[in-house]
């Protein structure tokens, strides 16, 4: 049998954490051939709730679940970890300025970055879900200089799924017929869900949309804002934030990263930029990526039209501002 993989889940007693760990135990994170050992990290005040989750995980009698341990110390929680699901973060409270939010999260992600640097396994990889996810990933990476930068990613897979689903709905297609959607930039309202390379049933999505009465104004005025503001729509309709869909996206992100994207297809992930498409190398930005042998590679050579370039630049500008704010507060680690 395969060796068990240690997976550290932060914010494990929170909503997304709770929705993620049972599916991870069921094999939806690393596939049905890989046993997992779960390390649940919580704040001291939520430790008891995480212990309750651990009891329920035991009650699942999951054949792939090798063990569950609960921690409130990041150093112990990341010891030996190969996968980090960094879900816990400090949400924006009423009247909280952006600088306060960045500072509170820098406190969390710098400590976790140092713990990862000190004790995680050689093959450690992380997806940051907790917002502001891209910049939190950058902060963690800056405090983990011995871990390759590209192992710290952030979640834009939920945005990717939302874009796929909206395109399918607008064209009357099944989601399985949609391909080539891309999310660029920040996981925020400035993100750019890009349909210019997308296909529906093998035909260019923009043509299929036009035939369904949706022109490029519909893309700019309806599709893009609907995807970018879907989180707010869920809160309004459901009376709570996106949870199960975020958990699902988190599992898909790691699974594709480790096991590979389907041949001829790509997904979207926020990764340390390699300088492609004019995105500065020090930023963690969403790109279309393919994954092979555990590595994510930005899809090269895509033609960006003037509209796309402008939208990508705007979102990347926001990432640069977030990074500058964190740097000005002195919160970046030794890797900078
Ligand atoms: P939640 O508030 O239910 O859970 C967060 C948990 O994290 C809490 O149990 C809290 O005790 C814990 N936590 C906070 N600081 C921690 C630390 N330093 N170490 C360990 N645990 C810590 O929130 P929910 O709904 O689970 O969302 C989690 C995060 O995911 C939020 O930041 C949210 O904005 C973000 N999110 C990101 C999405 C994306 O697509 N990137 C989509 C949806 C949510």
Automatic annotation (TrEMBL):
Catalytic activity: (S)-malate + NAD(+) = oxaloacetate + NADH + H(+)
HAMAP family hit by this protein: Malate_dehydrog_2
Domain Lactate/malate dehydrogenase C-terminal: 156-325
Family: Belongs to the LDH/MDH superfamily. MDH type 2 family.
Pfam families (alphabetical): Ldh_1_C, Ldh_1_N
Organism: Kocuria flava
EC number: 1.1.1.37
General function of this protein: Catalyzes the reversible oxidation of malate to oxaloacetate.
Keyword Oxidoreductase: yes
Protein name: Malate dehydrogenase
PANTHER family listed in its UniProt record: MALATE DEHYDROGENASE
Keywords associated with the record: NAD, Oxidoreductase, Tricarboxylic acid cycle
PROSITE patterns per record: MDH
